[in-house]
Every structure is written in structure tokens, then in C-alpha cells.
């Protein structure tokens, strides 16, 4: 009798030890999982503000100093545009395709034809989901950046090289004329460019960011050509521009045939939620 009780006590004791140990293991497991979760959380927070702050303006009135050296070369731009770029950091030009002094240019191109070519690229799956990169990290999170894109650089894009995108090619030439005009009128000295087509699906957005990193690449000007020629207010997808000096914001509607130009290094911006089927824009960066 006594021996049986002794054995039972032993069993209970062993059971208690086992329970204690499994609890300990459970405790450590929980601790590790919560550490992993908090690390993931921290990373997610970093993703929401993925860029370093934009550099300060040279003074409170001007982001940069742009000096007009030859105003006879103005075609798309005028003196006020240059002042806007210096002081507000951005400017908007509407009816881009027809608003040129060049008579021939006015006739040549229709936004519908450009849109159709872009849509063709999308439908033939030439666009890839965009990544965000910062330092050596790369993220792909739809709630942060939801567009898909294709690079439209002549050096690398076969469709452009082989003449399959005649309307887009003409548009790119017009956009490049802006670069040449800046070089001629304000000595901008920009030789290198980079261009992409980006399409946002319904519900898409791109959180606040800066196109150029301090001490990183050297994108100086962002030129965006909007393609939604039937855009309506309820389609949303405005580009919110932040004024780093006083925190004020300006929302630019992504209206078709509109060109938005801003200082890549200074103007932080955010694509607000888009509610149309495909929000399309072609963006060129001047280096
Ligand atoms: O499409 C836009 O309005 C801006 C897109 C943008 O900010 C970007 O691609 O860096
Ligand atoms: Fe951007």
C-alpha cells in the first residue's frame, strides 16, 4: 500500500516537472514569437515612411536658383513657369500635346492613341508589379505602392527599339524636348533621363515618398504625363505634393494630357487612392 502511494507521488512529481518544462518551453516560444512579431512591426513602420526627408530649400522663398540665360528658346515653358519651379517647387501644364508653338507638333498626336498603346502593353502583361527600394532593402507591399510598371527607355525597351510603340515614341520625344528646352533656357545641363509607364489598379496608391535620396541617385526633375483623358473627380488618385517649408499640401488631379513637373529632390509626394480601373501616367526623370 505504502509502495503504491510512493509510486503515485513519484508519477505526480514527474508529471509536474514535465508540465513545468513544457510551460517553460511554451513561455520561451511565446517570447520568441512576440519578438519576431515586434521586429516585423518595426519593419512595417519603416515601410510606411520609406524615404529620408527632402533637403531644405536654399531659403524660405526658393527651393533652388534657376537663372534664365536665353528666353528666345522658350516653347512649352515661359518665365513664370521657371519662377514657379524655383519657388513652389512644381508646375502644372495642361493640353500638353497641343499647347506648343510648333505648328507641326500640334497636329501629330492624340492622347487616345497613346493611351491605347499603353493599355496594349498592360494587356499583354509587359508591366511588372513595382517594388520600393531603399538602401539594400526591397519591399513589395500593395498597401504601400500598388502600381505596375514598365521602363520605356530606348536603350532597353525592345518594343520602342523595334517601332511597335509609335505614339508613345512621339510623346517621349515631346517630353525630351522639355529637357532640351530647360538646357537651352536655364542651362540645366541634363543629359541622362529615365522613363516609366505606371498603371494603378482600382484602390491603388503610393505612400508619401521622395523620388531622389539625399546622397543617393541624382534625379533632379520629375516630369509626369497623365493619360486618363476621361478622368472625373470621383476617380481620385490625385498626387498630393508636400511643401517641406510649412507642411502645406497641394493636390494635383491626374487629368489626361496634363504635365506635372516638380523638383525630385525637394518635393515629397503621395498618390492618393485611385478609384478608376486604370490610373495611367508616364514619368520621366531628368538627371
Ligand atoms: O503618378 C503619379 O502621380 C506619381 C507617381 C510617383 O510618385 C512615382 O512613380 O514615383
Ligand atoms: Fe514619386
TrEMBL record:
GO cellular component assignments: cytoplasm
Domain Fe2OG dioxygenase: 191-287
Source species: Cavenderia fasciculata (Slime mold)
Entry annotated with the keyword Transport: no
UniProt cofactor(s): L-ascorbate
Keyword terms: Dioxygenase, Iron, Membrane, Metal-binding, Oxidoreductase, Transmembrane, Transmembrane helix, Vitamin C
GO biological process terms held by the UniProt record: cellular response to hypoxia; culmination involved in sorocarp development; oxygen metabolic process; SCF complex assembly
Stored InterPro entries: HIF_prolyl_hydroxylases, Oxoglu/Fe-dep_dioxygenase_dom, Pro_4_hyd_alph, Pro_4_hyd_alph_FE2OG_OXY
GO MF term (any one): L-ascorbic acid binding
Protein name as it appears in the record: Prolyl 4-hydroxylase
Listed transmembrane segments: 12-29
The organism's taxonomic lineage, starting at the top: Eukaryota, Amoebozoa, Evosea, Eumycetozoa, Dictyostelia
Keyword Transmembrane annotated: yes
Amino acid at each position: 500500500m505504502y509502495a503504491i502511494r510512493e509510486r503515485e507521488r513519484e508519477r505526480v512529481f514527474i508529471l509536474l516537472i514535465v508540465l513545468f518544462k513544457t510551460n517553460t518551453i511554451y513561455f520561451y516560444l511565446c517570447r520568441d514569437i512576440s519578438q519576431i512579431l515586434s521586429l516585423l512591426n518595426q519593419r512595417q513602420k519603416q515601410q510606411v515612411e520609406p524615404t529620408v526627408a527632402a533637403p531644405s530649400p536654399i531659403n524660405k522663398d526658393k527651393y533652388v536658383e534657376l537663372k534664365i540665360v536665353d528666353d528666345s528658346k522658350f516653347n512649352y515653358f515661359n518665365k513664370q513657369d521657371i519662377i514657379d519651379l524655383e519657388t513652389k517647387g512644381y508646375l502644372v501644364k495642361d493640353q500638353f500635346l497641343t499647347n506648343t508653338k510648333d505648328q507641326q507638333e500640334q497636329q501629330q498626336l492624340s492622347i487616345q492613341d497613346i493611351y491605347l498603346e499603353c493599355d496594349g502593353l498592360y494587356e499583354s502583361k509587359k508591366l511588372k508589379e513595382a517594388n520600393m527600394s531603399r538602401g539594400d532593402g526591397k519591399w513589395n507591399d500593395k498597401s504601400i505602392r500598388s502600381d505596375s510598371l514598365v521602363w520605356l527607355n530606348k536603350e532597353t525597351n525592345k518594343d520602342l527599339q523595334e517601332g511597335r510603340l509609335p505614339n508613345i515614341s512621339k510623346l517621349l520625344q515631346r517630353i525630351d524636348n522639355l529637357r532640351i528646352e530647360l538646357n537651352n533656357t536655364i542651362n540645366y545641363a541634363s543629359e541622362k533621363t529615365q522613363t516609366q509607364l505606371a498603371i494603378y489598379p482600382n484602390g491603388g496608391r503610393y505612400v508619401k515618398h521622395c523620388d531622389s535620396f539625399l546622397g543617393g541617385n541624382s534625379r533632379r526633375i520629375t516630369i509626369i504625363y497623365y493619360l486618363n483623358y476621361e478622368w472625373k473627380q470621383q476617380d481620385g488618385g490625385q498626387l498630393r505634393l508636400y511643401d517641406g517649408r510649412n507642411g502645406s499640401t497641394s493636390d494635383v488631379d491626374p487629368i489626361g494630357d496634363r504635365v506635372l513637373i516638380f523638383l525630385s529632390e525637394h518635393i515629397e509626394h503621395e498618390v492618393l487612392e485611385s478609384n478608376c480601373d486604370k490610373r495611367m501616367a508616364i514619368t520621366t526623370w531628368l538627371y
